[in-house]
């Protein structure tokens, strides 16, 4: 767990163009803030490496999309960029000994609908260290269980008020699913829809790979993710990795996927900005793919992903 003392906090505040630094170990939110009372808000979680946020534009664009989905007016992208720079500079000044190139930091952007009755959103940036568990799972891989999310794969289109493709603060269900998995001895979850489609993890996107020999004997590698319009969050990591993989000669595919497709894959991963690629070793106790091929493909995709800015 991250202690508040190790978190740098910057509020977006019109009176402070570069953001207003605040003490994360002291109370900072009003109890009537609708982020706290209703989970009414949105967020992004990004990785900074060596002082630079990876895929920043994609995250800011997705934050804008989430805001639009819930009719929330949020600060403009330049204000976010300035507050992020302030947070990273403050972290650097508090930890001058850390070598910039080794430094991995979580940069979180949060916006709520603000205090009840007030016209402005509450918006802040948090900078904190990356947790050890996620780093470890990049190496060891994870065991996952399949869980029913209870919506069909058309629900997002039919019922946009469910906000299924937005990154809202209402993550209590996602966290409950993770606790359920931990109680079963698993590390993570892959949700499926009530009509049997593979969706996403509670905090990650699902990827699978197939390797086939072409007629000429060369191997054809295909990277596949669930359909983006099936009520899942469009992952910035998946989007960036797909671009890099395509440039490196991989074929790409977008669902629909069923749980059996995961079991038949040569390798499966959960991908997200902070943990990056976590290889899936077992799903509901069944081994996935072959360990040597999984290792080889993971190394190749890790290299492609590391090259993304
Ligand atoms: N899907 C969900 C539900 C998530 O919460 C996340 C990230 O937290 C992702 C997918 C992966 O998104 P990204 O790759 O942009 O981190």
Which key phrases capture this entry?
D-amino Acid Aminotransferase, Chain A, domain 1, 6-stranded antiparallel beta sheet, D-amino Acid Aminotransferase, Chain A, domain 2, alpha+beta, 309 residues, binds pyridoxal-5'-phosphate, 8-stranded mixed beta sheet
Description:
The protein is of the alpha+beta class and 309 residues long. It has two domains: 4-130, Aminotransferase class 4, branched-chain amino acid transferase, N-terminal domain (D-amino Acid Aminotransferase, Chain A, domain 1); 136-306, D-amino Acid Aminotransferase, Chain A, domain 2 (Alpha-Beta Barrel). The protein contains nine helices and 14 strands. It has helices at residues 34-38, 56-69, 77-94, 132-140, 155-158, 172-183, 236-247, 259-264, 291-306; strands at 8-13, 16-23, 41-49, 52-53, 104-112, 122-129, 142-148, 188-192, 205-213, 219-225, 251-254, 267-272, 276-283, 286-287. Strands 7, 8, 9, 10, 11, 12, 13 and 14 form an eight-stranded mixed β-sheet that branches. It has a six-stranded antiparallel β-sheet with strand order 2-1-6-5-3-4. The chain is globular and about 65 Å long. The relative contact order is 0.13.
